Amino acid sequence: MKLNTIWDKLKDRTPSILGEENFAKYAILLPLIHKEDGIHVLFEVRSLELRRQPGEICFPGGRIDLQDKDEKTAAIRETMEELGLKKEDITRVFPLDVLLSPFGMILYPYVGFIDNIEKICPNPDEVGEVFTVPLDYFIENEPKVYYVDLKPEPEEDFPFDLIAGGVNYSWQKKQMDEFFYLYKNRVIWGLTAKILAHFIAVLREEGINDDKTK
User: Fold this and answer.
1) Beta strand 24-35 pairing with 105-114
2) Contact indicator for 134, 38 with CB cutoff of 8 Å
3) Nearest to 101 by CA among 151, 211, 202, 176
4) Among 169, 136, 159, 177, which Cα is nearest to 41's?
5) What would the pLDDT profile of 40-92 be if each residue is shown by its tens digit?
6) How far apart are alpha carbons 68 and 77 in whole angstroms?
7) For residues 28 and 41, what is the distance between their CA atoms, to the nearest angstrom?
8) pTM of the predicted protein model
9) DSSP state of 173
10) Other CB atoms closer than 10 Å to residue 109's CB: what's the count?
């Protein structure tokens, strides 16, 4: 292969995430609403009839479909489907950082505003109930963080004879952090809590005053 051929293949290439075709892609929305005492974060409780994670607290969202224009479109569509809203009910939608899960998922989180909580009509097939928590609670209370060790376990036919160190190879240890927010009788944890903590960190980047949360 000629050097110019290599340059031609690389010069206009837009990099992506290596192996992303093997990841399931999801989009979620962190919904904000305005109540009498200020801005609240809205959460869903997953229906007990669901096969995956029944009864857990989450944000609206789901897998990105082929017909979705982009990740933002998917987040809005899923919120409409789960909360019985129209597109015009969801405004000021802005992206947060993309989250790469160690379990083969890429999450595209967004923050959006629901103009009228009275319009919310949860889909009972997916949502058991909804509830809100004042945004100030998360600003004033740090999450508890616990750690889970992820241990590599090579398969029986792994070719140890091909690597330096063989069966005594020193595998890199990895920890996964799990965030927990406890509010009254609610436990908000996992990826939902991690995205929420990231959102609060974004708000704190330039400092927070009362006008920003009321």
Assistant:
1) parallel
2) yes
3) 176
4) 136
5) 999 999 987 787 878 899 999 999 999 999 999 999 999 999 999 999 999 99
6) 8
7) 14
8) 0.86
9) P
10) 25
